[in-house]
Write a structure and sequence with these properties.
The structure holds 2 protein chains of 2 kinds. By secondary structure, chain A is mainly α. In chain A, α2 runs parallel beside α4. Chain A contains 6 helices and 2 strands. Chain A has helices spanning 8-26, 35-56, 62-80, 88-107, 116-144, 151-175, and strands at 112-114, 179-180. Helix content of chain A is 74%, strand content 3%. By secondary structure, chain B is of the alpha+beta class. Chain B has helices spanning 7-26, 29-48, 213-219, 252-269, 291-303, 339-350, 371-394, 408-420, and strands at 2-5, 54-60, 64-66, 70-79, 83-91, 96-97, 105-112, 117-126, 130-134, 137-142, 148-154, 158-163, 182-186, 195-201, 223-228, 230-231, 234-241, 246-247, 250-251, 273-280, 284-289, 329-334, 354-360, 398-402. In chain B, α1 runs antiparallel to α2 and α4 packs antiparallel against α5 (291-303). Classes of the chains: A mainly alpha, B alpha+beta. At the A-B interface, α3, α4, β1, α5 and α6 of A face β1, α1, α2, β5 and β7 of B.
Chain lengths: 182, 427
């Protein structure tokens, strides 16, 4: 019987998640200058703090951390003008990677020794979802760049997508309530 | 199994909805591209999540073990549907040690394909005597995207009794009086036996082989030898379980139970009958019996001994009369801490029982005294205990203090020596 794994896995996952979050928080700073950069640095600091907290100790901070990182990116996008940022799929994949790593850190309890196939499967799923996120982001950007339809059509698509998402939120909130089975 | 959603579902969906609204308001498809993967992952996870179907069974390789032995607990798992991650958490009861050390739980996460069978083996080391329930296991299954967990509990308990390792005792405390059946203790009575007792004049009916020819020649009349017959004895082990003084080196109850098991094994090996009175908040007793059956019954009862806190007064009048037979030797194993246990011993002496008290010193287990007041209290406690021992000795009991550094055999030898000197302790 091999000796049980110690608390290294949660720490490693937490640190990896924090590193990804640091990349997401610091990258937008390079795109701005002047007083906005200083303000954005504060936002990046807050985002990083929340992200580290969510990854290492307080899982309830995951949503605020993602929101702040996304808000930071939105500020850069607003300053950017009409040009589409081709790095958006990377940001999307990075956010997902961070969130999944933070979730892994919480899942990997120090008392539980994971079998190697469990770790391998988790790593494979993580890599696949990250790659899929990258592809999905690229597809969305390509779709947004298509000449078909005017701004009104795009607005309609956006409104429909938002309504669908909000409906999904409601459905999920209803379905994910705790219930006993068997 | 109970299904629980992960907190990240709400987080992902909430952030995705926020980003979509922001993208719509700001007219930025990049925000949609950044947040869409979160929403898609949740949708994919919800679509793929299904309740796992598992069969699990816990077995233990044996029902009885000795302290220091290793037990093998096997958790047999069979997945009807695939489980991406299944945590098996086995509760390690206090007194046992799992592979990871002294933790209260041992856990392993495995992955099971559909129809796959897997047996998780855990070795537990028995560190303390007692009756245990093993097989308390918790299962927690996760889906592929870790959006849901399913939790279940296995309560298919297996009873295991862990006995203390009996010490080899060469000498035991001998009773003053014996019973009528043949055994291995030299009786004080006269009869057929091996040990020479006395001479007396020949009477009609005496066997010729009993005639002592030398004495007959000296006295000029037929003289016959009288001998001491070998008889059995009844031993009652009186265990004071009102209080347990526990320290880093052990506890008084652990010592008492270990000593009782050793004494029972040794006395039963001499074909004596041994009974048990576990006298505490929860009173248990066994009438004296002999043989292997009695030993197992006695050990089983001993393993269930525990401190049961109660303020109710208990006296020996609560015991059935047959539990304490006449002419029995009562060996009391007590820390002399609880007033009810102390009073019960006085009561036994007043009723004329042959009593030997092994006073298991709680002073060492209680820890060292700190400060002037602590030292003073410690000394007063020691004096109080010594006074109590003298009171027992004045009433005819033999009382020997068993401190940590002494072996049970030494204590028994000292008890026997004191009894031979007329029941007076050396102190």
């Amino acid at each position: 019987m091999p000796a049980p794994r110690r608390a290294r896995a949660p720490l490693a996952c937490g640190l990896a998640a924090t590193a990804v979050a640091a990349g997401l928080a610091l990258a937008p700073l390079a795109a701005v200058s002047g007083p906005l950069r200083e303000a954005l640095a504060w936002l990046a600091g807050l985002g990083l703090l929340l992200a580290a907290g969510a990854a290492l100790r307080l899982p309830s901070l995951l949503a605020p951390a993602l929101s702040v990182l996304l808000a930071e990116y939105a500020v850069v996008l607003v300053r950017r003008g009409d040009r589409i940022d081709a790095a958006a799929p990377l940001v999307g994949a990075g956010l997902l990677l961070y969130a999944e790593l933070a979730s892994w850190a919480r899942e990997a309890r120090p008392q539980v020794r994971d079998d190697r196939p469990v770790l391998e499967a988790r790593a494979v799923v993580l890599a696949a979802t990250t790659m899929a996120a990258l592809g999905l982001g690229a597809v969305i950007l390509l779709a947004a760049d298509l000449p078909a339809g005017g701004s009104l059509t795009r607005l309609a698509i956006g409104v429909v997508a938002t309504i669908c998402t909000l409906t999904l939120v409601t459905l999920v909130a209803r379905r994910t309530s705790t219930r006993a089975r068997g | 199994m109970t299904r629980r959603p992960s907190a990240k579902i709400a987080a992902y969906i909430g952030v995705a909805a926020l980003a979509l609204l922001a993208g719509l308001a700001l007219g930025r498809p990049e925000l949609v591209a950044a947040a869409a993967p979160l929403a898609v992952l949740v949708v994919a996870g919800l679509a793929g999540a299904h309740d796992p179907e598992l069969r699990a069974e816990v077995t233990v390789d044996r029902e009885r073990a000795l302290v220091g032995d290793e037990l093998t607990v096997q958790v047999a798992l069979r997945a009807v549907t695939p489980v991406d991650r299944l945590e098996v958490l086995l509760v390690v009861p206090p007194g046992m040690e799992g592979p990871g050390g002294t933790g209260r739980t041992w856990a392993l996460a495995v992955r099971l394909a559909a129809g796959e069978e897997r047996t998780v083996t855990v070795r537990l080391t028995c560190r303390r005597w007692g009756a245990y329930w093993l097989g308390d296991a918790h299962l927690r299954a996760h889906d592929r995207f870790r959006l849901f967990t399913w939790e279940g509990h296995l309560d298919r308990h297996a009873a295991v009794k862990v006995f203390p390792v009996p010490e080899a005792l060469r000498a035991l405390v001998h009773p003053f009086e014996t019973q009528v059946s043949t055994g291995s203790h030299v009786s004080g009575q006269r009869g057929d036996g091996i040990e020479f007792a006395d001479l007396r004049p020949f009477l009609p009916g005496d066997r010729p082989r009993s005639i002592n020819w030398r004495a007959t020649a000296r006295r000029g009349a037929l003289m016959v030898n009288q001998r001491h017959p070998e008889r059995t004895t009844d031993i009652v082990l009186f265990l004071d379980s009102f209080l347990d003084v526990r320290g880093s080196t052990g506890s008084t109850l652990d010592l008492a139970v270990g000593a009782a098991a050793s004494l029972a094994s040794a006395y039963l090996g001499q074909r004596d009958r041994v009974g048990l009175v576990s006298f505490g908040g929860f009173v248990q007793w066994l009438q004296p019996g002999g043989g292997q059956t009695a030993l197992y019954r006695l050990l089983d009862t001993l393993m269930e001994t525990q401190v049961f806190a109660t303020a109710a007064w208990k006296g020996i009048r609560h015991l059935p009369p047959r539990t304490l037979p006449a002419k029995a030797l009562i060996v009391a194993l007590t820390p002399l801490v609880d007033e009810r246990g102390v009073a019960a011993l006085f009561d036994l002496l007043a009723r004329g029982y042959d009593l030997a008290v092994v006073d298991i010193s709680p002073l060492t287990h209680a820890g060292g005294a700190t400060g002037d007041w602590g030292e003073l209290a410690h000394r007063l406690w020691a004096l109080e205990r010594e006074t109590l021992r003298h009171r027992y000795q004045r009433l005819g009991a033999t009382v020997i203090e068993w401190t940590d550094e002494r072996h049970l055999q030494q204590v028994l030898l000292e008890v026997e020596a004191c009894r031979r000197r007329g029941g007076l302790a050396p102190r």
